[in-house]
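Make up an example, fold above all:
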Amino acid sequence: MKLIVLIILATFLTTARSWSAGGDLKPPQITVDFVFPPSPLIQYGAVRLVYEMVITNYVSAGYALESVRVDCGERQFSYSGETLKNMIRFAGDASATGQSLRIPGGKTAVVFFMLEFKNAFQVPASLHHILRFRSQDDVEHVLAAKPLLVESRAPVMVEAPLRGTDWIAGDAVHDSPDAAHRRALLFDHGEAFLAQRYAIDWVRYRIVNGAGTTWSGPENRNSSYFCYDAAIYSMTPGIVTEVLDGIPENVPHSGRIAIDVNFKNAGGNHVVIYMGYGLYAFYAHMRPGTITVKVGDHVSVGENIGRVGNSGNSTEPHLHEHIVNQPSFLAGQGVPYEFAQFEASGPVHLTPKPHDQMFFENIGALKPFTYDYPAPYAAVSFR
């Protein structure tokens, strides 16, 4: 018995000496978690990993986040200064700019990552994050977060939800501070969801008075918008699991929504199609009375399911579509997908606009893509 006690005591002392020599005796009282494990996205010819880190400070003293390093096998990504500021949003702060690297006591910060790789072979099986904090007493602390596993699932392959030319892939996934879909983190049953992680708002543009815009004529009429009443097609085969119709349309750019928005009706008149493999395709903001399918219907790829409208949480006519892992418009995790074939420009710049109007400039030449996802606000042509 005495020998066993001595062995245990010797092991403890060795471990304690090792820990005190290399560990942090006053580690930052911070937790680091992740919303959802990423899987590869093919966007504009590059392979990307899109994910979110959640940092919570549990004590009253603040910590300054000085840098984050992501180790990806042979590759590393490092973020600090203004770049890191633009990747952060604090809980309770809806502003897109003016973020700080100081995490006050009791605050939670979300860091939005988008890592780019040349090809799929560079994507690691897991991501390792090293965070450097500085406490109020000017001491640097190094925190190694638990590894984040990368799911090996390939992007879901889908067909075009629309037909014709002059479409804009509105707010297709990007990591700018004003990315509305990308930063729409919502909560249900105590869990964080980012259903709109890869969502696209499809609008149609024309060149009017020398500028790309989405409408011509009376601004307050839905019929003035170039995409209004366009046919919507199922991107995949599947079974219709949800249909909501009869929601009135909004007056464009009026600053008012016709309904009291909630988790059920935020998509307005919409269709949900179960694609198999635990995934659901959402088609939102349809024109009332135009939905052509009902719950239980088996739909084929390319089948007409409704028409573009301006219902639900929408400021002007458009088609919002995304794919999630649960049958909920907002309480699910968005997963990456790619379109089988299309032509598209590179990223398109939005000019400063009054209220909700959209104007586009520097729309480049279109080139063909296969099994890809468009760049932010790219001009897109579907056959």
In short: Confidence is low (pLDDT under 50) at residues 1-21. The two ends are 80 Å apart (CA to CA).
